[in-house]
Amino acid sequence: MKDGLRFVDCDMHIMEPVDLFDRYLDKKFRDRVTLPVDAKGQYKRGMVIIDGQPTSYDALTQEHRKPKKGREKAELSSQPLSGSRMADSGRLDFAQERNYDAVAQVMGMELEGIDIAVLFPTMGLSLLARDNMDPQLSLALAQAYNNWMYEFCQYSPDQLKFAAMLPVHDVNLACQELVRCVTELGATGSFVRPNVVNGRFWHSNYWNPLFDMHEQLDVSMGFHEGTGAANSYMNTLYGENRFYRHVASHWIEMQQCMIAMLIAGVFEFYPKLRVGYLEAQNSWVPGILTRIEWDYPQYRDSHAPYLSLTPKEYFQRNCWAAVEGSEPEIEATASLIGADRMCISTDYPHFDSNFPNVANNLLDNVKRETAAAIFMGGAHLHNFTDEDFAKADMAMEEKQKAMAAE
Question: I need a surface site. Which of 55, 114, 121, 311 has the fewest CB within 10 A?
Fold first, then answer.
């Protein structure tokens, strides 16, 4: 709990182990994936190469330039809205010392007051994000990640949940992997990106089986962007300047995805589908809904006669959009779309997270009742119940006792 309030982190990240694919990838695909090594020949964090291609556009650019000389450490670590370069601050020392293991993950949850966390990848954000990938390789990579993620969560499965990575290069394989992860591994939803895949965007009927499968399994679909993906159009627009791309990709790719789904009638035809638009803030949501509604009189009858509700009604029935706690627009946005349609992402342990002050920032930023609804947004997105929270409480108590005894 945080200050007596239930708190579900709808988007907490993990740091994949450097040897994940060496241990978990199907052996017949292993020679198609190469991992970075250090001077001792040991695997290290860095760019994964698949079929000779880097998994991120950023591998080809000059990003991460060193700051100007003379800038103080505190200046680098304290921006008003995002605690950028947080590794400089020492706030992640406990996790780095444990190599970001599951114990560190739960320690981070305790620092933030998180009851239940839904986990998303780091390196894996861009792992499958390119066109024309061999669908069977896409499946093997997703399975390797999901199998490792399942084992990671077993440290405290009532606290640690995960969104399954889906091999989107074949919609039928994506459906099969979703079924496996939900029914066998306990995934509470999926992770997909909002980008175009092989020329198919999210208004295409191609994706209907995937929408239907989420609805049948009663699990959420979580859209999550990640700057540097090979198939992001922001690379074409802005080239190597990551500042441009980081600003644009998270917002604009997500807006286009939501527009496509709303106007295509995805929520009309799959009325029980639950979708989360994550790590993109959400002050853009009211404007997009208004813009679509503005055009309803001109285009609804001729181009989307199947729509029976307004954009806002669809959103308030089927959608959630995440905040990260310190955005100044949160209270105003909540008044327009409803705080209960919002959820919160700590984005731990990424460089632009405000961990361990995400929850504190939200409480300082909005009314307590607004914060309470946002803290619980992830619970509604993933359909967590009082029973789930009771199990998470018990698990946290057990972990605290075990750590105290060490």
Answer: 121
CB 331 within 8 A of CB 367: yes
Using the Cα atoms of residue 344, residue 349, residue 351 and residue 355 in order, give the sign of their dihedral: positive
Looking up residue 238, the CATH number of its domain turns out to be 3.20.20.140
Locate 173 and state its tokens: 């394989």
Q: How many domains does the structure of the chain reveal?
A: 1
Predicted confidence (pLDDT) per residue in 331-346, tens digit? 999 999 999 999 999 9
Distance between CA atoms of 281 and 283, rounded to whole angstroms? 6
Note whether 375 and 8 are within 8 A (CB). yes
Residue 72, in any domain of the structure: no
Q: Is residue 76 part of a domain?
A: no
Maximum CA extent, the chain: 68
Q: What is the DSSP letter of 172?
A: H
pLDDT tens digit sequence for 136-161: 999 999 999 999 999 999 999 999 99
The parent domain of residue 139 ranges over: 8-64+92-405
Tokens of 65: 């330039």
CB neighbours of residue 6 within 10 Å: 20
